[in-house]
Amino acid sequence: MLMPNLIYMNTITLESSQLTYHVIYQKNRKTIQLKVLTSTHLEITAPNNFPNASIQKILHKKRNWIVKQILHLSNAMSNPINKSITHGARVLYLGAPHTLIFTSNYCSQPTIHLKDNQIIIDTPNINTAQTTPLAESLLRQWYLESASNILSAKTSLWAAKINVQPQRITIKEQKTRWGSCSSKGNLNYNWRIVMAPPEVIDYLVIHELCHLRVPNHSALFWQVVGKFSPNFKNHRTWLQTNGTILMGILKLK
């Protein structure tokens, strides 16, 4: 199998800022994909033998979009939410910040529950400074279970309204996707979507279910999505703007 050819540390100046970028060449690719990895580095996926001079022209043409993405990334990095799993830290759940509270009430086994705008993690009587690994495990499992319950219910609700019949639903860790729909009608959801507002979760479910009617992203597909989610553009923008924040905690090692 032909491995992609990676070219590292090219540079380009956009809006008076010098950025570095690397190119991943793929044999069967027909289009260019840009991804802002950090505030100073880009990843570009391109067809084999695509000239570097043409890549730089595209980067200049897309400079406004790139600058906007860098600004979003910088804002996400400065946002104090979803930065750590420690006592008093704030994390997102259903679009709202919740404060993590570590308690030790001589419980027989660790538990986690919601109270107002707090996520309370109760662990056996040990120093709370030592509970971070345990808290991470508990919180991840809690998010997974919440995502499973919420997404299963919303999928059933919207499937009936859209008049489609999905097959298997899987909640998983996905680094670049919020959801997907296979040709067999199996749905995959990224558990982190449970951190987003309910209306954004609804949009994701509607999006994937609509692929059972239109298996592409054509104009017809977006017409169908818009029928059931009239504000889908706002919800899509919310995910694009806040996706980095949702990915900020509980990363797989």
The CATH class of the largest domain, by name, is Alpha Beta
Percent strand: 25-35%
Specify the CATH architecture of the largest domain: 2-Layer Sandwich
Principal-axes shape call:
globular
Secondary structure class reads alpha/beta
In CATH, the topology of the largest domain is named Zincin-like
Describe the structure in your own words.
With 253 residues, the chain is α/β, with parallel strands linked by helices. The chain has helices at 52-61, 63-78, 132-162, 198-210, 219-228, 232-246; strands spanning 5-14, 17-26, 33-36, 41-47, 90-93, 96-103, 111-115, 118-122, 169-172, 179-181, 187-190. The chain has two domains: 5-78, no CATH class; 90-246, 2-Layer Sandwich (Zincin-like), CATH 3.30.2010.10. Helix content is 38%, strand content 25%. The strands form three sheets. Strands 1-2-4-3 form a four-stranded mixed beta sheet, covered by helices on one side. A four-stranded mixed beta sheet has the order 5-6-8-7, covered by helices on one side. The model has no long low-confidence stretch (mean pLDDT 86).
Task: Detail the topology: elements first, then pairings.
Elements: E1 5-14, E2 17-26, E3 33-36, E4 41-47, H1 52-61, H2 63-78, E5 90-93, E6 96-103, E7 111-115, E8 118-122, H3 132-162, E9 169-172, E10 179-181, E11 187-190, H4 198-210, H5 219-228, H6 232-246
Parallel strand pairs: 2-4, 6-8, 9-11
Antiparallel strand pairs: 1-2, 3-4, 5-6, 7-8, 10-11
Helix pairs in contact: 2-6, 3-4, 4-5
In brief:
The protein is α/β, with parallel strands linked by helices and 253 residues long. The protein is built from six helices and eleven strands. A hairpin with a 2-residue loop joins strand 1 and strand 2 (17-26).
